[in-house]
Amino acid sequence: MPATGSSFVRAEHYLDVGNPQACVDVLDEVAFDQDPVRAFELRSLALLRLERHDDALEAAHQGLRLDPENAALMFYAAQAAGRLGRPDADDLFAAVLRVAPGDAVTRCAYGLYLTAEARLPEAIEQLEAARDLEPSSNDVTLLEGRIAFHRGDWSTCRTCAQAVLAEDPENVEALLLDGAAADEQGDIAGAARRISQAAAATPDDRALTGVAHETQAQAHWIMRPFVLVTRVVPWWLQMVAMFLTVRGVQLSGSERAFTIVLLLALAWGLYGLGVPGLLERRSMRGRR
């Protein structure tokens, strides 16, 4: 069936209400012969939101073959390439900025890509340019927070994330950013709270839901000794230390001491491995 105006309206509606898969399904039902460029724009954006970055990049390139100067398609292609870590992401972002140099959203997206690539001086240049264009934009504030996170400035990072959350309490990126910085500061309860809020805002994201259950388990008071020790001594190093201790006591010939040390090592291992699983299952039951 040919693409109609109502098909595009439905596709855009599904994007607006946070259902990108339905948008893709609507577009797949129609032929791209009435307004293929618009169809590829919607398809690429929907695929980006589904995190199907390879498919999003292909859809954008298909649209650009028809309209090489389409700024939206260039932007979606740049975003997809950046998230895939492709070397042509720089050229794609530069192409967008040549067409729309005053677009703060593009500069923020480019800044996020540069931050992920640990190219912080270049990311800061994009941040400053975006701030000159739209100083009160949440995208600008989030980019500043992301850069602060990569620089280890947890306080600034949380300040930026919380400024966004003051205006948009369900902003998932801000919730995750604040949670990650809280975790780095040792605020395990705060991290668990923010990540749980992000999971609640995106109930279809099973991976994030799993992370939320895990962080809730770590934040439980029962797990505090284990979490504090693990922050200082990695889990694998704890295992090596326990093995060497048990082996050393065994070689000493004291059977009683060996039994006590072995039981303590087993208890610590069960505490670190078993208790979190029980707490996670308890957390999952509580959300049903």
TrEMBL record:
<dbReference type="InterPro" id="IPR011990">
    <property type="entry name" value="TPR-like_helical_dom_sf"/>
</dbReference>
<dbReference type="InterPro" id="IPR019734">
    <property type="entry name" value="TPR_rpt"/>
</dbReference>
<feature type="repeat" description="TPR">
    <location>
        <begin position="37"/>
        <end position="70"/>
    </location>
</feature>
<keyword id="KW-0802">TPR repeat</keyword>
<feature type="transmembrane region" description="Helical">
    <location>
        <begin position="258"/>
        <end position="279"/>
    </location>
</feature>
<keyword id="KW-0472">Membrane</keyword>
<keyword id="KW-0812">Transmembrane</keyword>
<protein>
    <submittedName>
        <fullName>Tetratricopeptide repeat protein</fullName>
    </submittedName>
</protein>
<keyword id="KW-1133">Transmembrane helix</keyword>
<dbReference type="Pfam" id="PF13432">
    <property type="entry name" value="TPR_16"/>
</dbReference>
